[in-house]
Write a structure and sequence with these properties.
731 residues; Rossmann fold; Arc Repressor Mutant, subunit A; seven-stranded parallel β-sheet; six-stranded parallel β-sheet; alpha/beta
Length: 731
């Protein structure tokens, strides 16, 4: 291309988008598109993929057809293009969200030559009426965005994407550009074959995002850890990914009650709510979006400062794509993932019932994720290797493994044994099988292939298969082993591996993380309930304060706070009314009514004794009202007879009273006067109420019956009046 053409391309960039220079591979990709060649573009999130088809579409004759998977993504990009132009018709989308009138307007603008970019969902592309329409227009080129959706190996497989090539052939051949931010060599090969663009020019940018910090944490008290992290990064934008819609809703609610500006986003919400929540995040009305993977593809927010995976993703492609939404402006981007092997087992269960080939693919992708999570090698090195890129720096200084290195040891002999084992099984097996051979595990597969008869079977029995998997993984990253792309996961030795067996040299191995042990230890601790010891001095001081408060209010001490609550205060040291609400047996009402003097006393005590309080008090939990409790409260508000409520729920009256007592004790005030007045005469009501107010030393029903007389009063009457007593005076 001439110097004049070079100037004109940069002029076009400045004129249409206001940029003075291209980023990375953008310029060479755009030239390739302008020259009419097919292009395959691998560019990490934030690298500027969209410009690679947006600028040529404005320069070339005709309309560029952009096949894109998400309506939200199309809308964003169309809005952005219209922002660069004075003509609204410059860009349109064609999908199921449009009315007939809107659809007609789009088609007219295209036919009139106003539209340079037409975004189409793959589902819309397959409709016969749209195929007929597109045959009538001059198409400059086709762009397939988020092209990893084509591949069944990709993290977001969509069958409609595999029909793109036949439909393009039907509409009319034109140059093709496929773009993705994440593709392993296997995925790339699959995409190119499917789109019939094997001879396309491939433009691959480095997958290394130096500004991103990668960390994997054990999944213990994850919600609490997330709240602490967000509060220590106050005001920063972040995305939290969960695998299930239910968890998205739960976590968003927990964040909200902890004064974090957060909203949920998932495919089960109606389109208006989803769109509103997304816009609030983009406009910074909220700091955090809790989402399933339905959120984020193509979202152009440059200053996302953290991406947290509450659940480990199903594949490293997914993980890379999602973490890539952090720090797109080159600034700080923290990528924190919570990992528990139990989550992997859950994901494996979900695969059951799917076709065997799909299960096999899914398991292989999960194994790569497990390997990434458990490795103690530089996370950046592992990620880049997965995408076929070598990273030659030993310490990236921006991941947990490099910043806090694990134990290292000499592994020369173990690497040689692992390489020999791959040769012994004729280079036709995956890592797990080879690890079992070395460890001496006689499972069905080993016996079926008679690999227990191999000379080196069990030569590494001092270590378990997990250890040998780690050795194989580190030899793979070091370039001694290849994984077969077509038969995903089969191991073979390359030239370097064979050479290493002949002339081994020192090889440093790093001990893997053992998250299972961490899980078990933490489970054991949390299962023991409150682990702190009661501060007996504070316990006695609080009991004295309770006695004084009760005397001042002319109430029995147990109405103020019961002993288990005082005990918990002497373990947890609550110093605010908010914290007081999380003490055993203390709800919102009770904390507000009686808590002030108690928290002031505790705060003074903590200061004087210089006590370091447990951090557990920081996090508020969501009040868990089951469906039963909600129904009871609503029915009582409507003054429904208690007997009818019990019948409606198919429970005995005693069970219903248990539920109502539980509601009242948690701090909710309810009024059952309408039922009591109908069932118990006024004199009896007064006598029972006075007993609890003046005479009772405990809340015991047995003690009340003994004092008041079992012949005159029933257990049910006393329970009903005790509910009234606690609701009026305790909450």
């Amino acid at each position: 291309m001439s110097v004049g053409a070079d100037i004109s391309l940069k002029d076009s960039l400045k004129k249409h988008f206001g940029f003075n220079a291209f980023k990375g591979n953008q310029e060479v990709v755009i030239r390739n598109v302008l020259d009419g060649n097919d292009s395959f573009v691998l560019m990490p999130t934030g690298g500027g993929k969209s410009l690679c088809y947006q600028l040529p579409s404005l320069i070339m004759d005709g309309t560029a057809i952009v096949i894109s998977p998400l309506i939200a993504l199309m809308k964003n990009q169309v809005d952005a293009m219209r922002g660069f132009s004075t003509e609204d018709g410059i860009a349109h989308f064609l999908n199921s969200s449009l009315t007939k009138t809107q659809m007609q307007k789009v088609k007219q603008d295209v036919l009139d030559g106003k539209t340079k970019l037409l975004y189409v969902a793959p589902e819309s592309l397959t409709k016969e009426e749209n195929i007929t329409f597109l045959k009538r227009i001059k198409i400059s080129f086709y762009a397939v965005d988020e092209a990893h959706c084509i591949s069944e190996w990709g993290h977001d497989f969509r069958p409609e994407y595999r029909r793109i090539r036949p439909i393009i052939n039907k509409i009319g051949i034109a140059p093709l550009i496929a773009l993705t931010a994440t593709a392993t060599p296997k995925v790339q090969s699959d995409i190119q074959k499917n789109l019939d663009m094997i001879n396309a020019n491939v433009f691959k940018s480095s997958f290394n995002r130096e500004n991103l910090y990668y960390e994997v944490r054990p999944k213990v008290n994850a919600a609490k850890e997330i709240i602490k992290f967000i509060k220590s990064n106050s005001g920063k934008s972040g995305i939290i990914y969960c695998l299930s819609r239910k968890k998205v809703e739960e976590l968003a609610e927990i964040l909200q009650v902890n004064e974090i500006k957060a909203l949920a986003y998932h495919a089960g919400m109606d389109a208006i709510t989803r769109s509103t929540n997304q816009d609030k995040f983009l406009l910074e009305d909220v700091d955090v979006i809790v989402a399933t993977i339905a959120f984020g593809m193509g979202i152009d927010k440059p200053d996302v400062r953290f991406v947290i995976h509450y659940d480990i993703p199903k594949s490293l492609e997914g993980y890379y794509q999602e973490t890539g939404r952090a720090g797109r402006d080159g600034g700080e981007g923290k990528c924190i993932s919570f990992y528990s092997y139990k989550d992997i087992q859950k994901l494996e269960k979900f695969m059951q019932g799917k076709p065997l080939a799909e299960q096999e693919i899914g398991k292989q992708l999960l194994l790569e994720t497990v390997a990434y999570a458990e490795t103690a090698v530089c996370r950046r090195k592992i990620l880049l290797h997965y995408f076929g890129e070598e990273y030659h720096i030993d310490d990236c200084e921006n991941c947990d493994n490099c910043n806090h290195p694990k134990e290292q040891f000499e592994g020369q002999d173990d690497v040689v044994l692992a390489l020999n084992a791959i040769l012994a099984v004729k280079e036709k097996f995956k890592s797990d099988h080879v690890a079992n051979v070395i460890s001496g595990v006689k499972n069905t597969s080993i016996k079926a292939y008679k690999h227990h008869e191999l000379g080196l079977f069990g030569d590494g029995s001092k270590e378990d298969p997990k250890y040998w998997n780690a050795v194989i993984r580190q030899a793979l990253v070091s370039g001694f082993i290849d994984k077969d792309i077509e038969n995903y996961g089969l191991l073979s030795l390359n030239k370097a591996g064979k050479e290493y067996i002949k002339n081994p040299i020192s090889f440093t191995l790093t001990k893997d993380h053992d998250y299972e042990t961490i899980d078990d230890e933490m489970d054991a601790q949390s299962g023991a309930g409150k682990t702190g010891a009661v501060d007996t001095e504070l316990f006695n001081i609080l009991k004295d304060l309770r006695k004084k408060t009760a005397k001042d209010l002319n109430l029995p001490p147990f109405v103020i706070f019961q002993d288990p609550s005082i005990e918990d205060m002497a373990i947890q040291y609550p110093i605010t009314l908010e914290e007081m609400q999380h003490i055993a047996g203390v709800g919102t009402g009770k904390a507000k009514k009686y808590g002030k003097e108690f928290v002031e006393l505790i705060e003074k005590y903590v200061d004087e004794k210089e006590i370091i309080r447990p951090m557990d008090m920081v996090v508020k939990s969501v009040v868990n009202k089951s469906g039963m409790k909600v129904y009871i409260i609503q029915s009582i508000d409507r003054q429904m007879p208690l007997t009818d409520i019990a019948d409606a729920k198919g429970i005995e009256m005693n069970q219903l009273l248990d539920e109502i007592e539980s509601i009242v004790q948690s701090g909710t005030k309810i009024n059952i006067d309408y039922y009591i007045n109908d069932k118990i005469d006024e004199d009896k009501q007064e006598e029972i109420f006075e007993y609890f107010r003046e005479e009772a030393e405990t809340e015991s029903i047995e003690a009340a019956l003994e004092e008041l007389g079992e012949e005159e009063y029933s257990e049910e009457e006393i329970r009903l009046m005790r509910i009234k007593f606690f609701s009026e005076l305790g909450n």
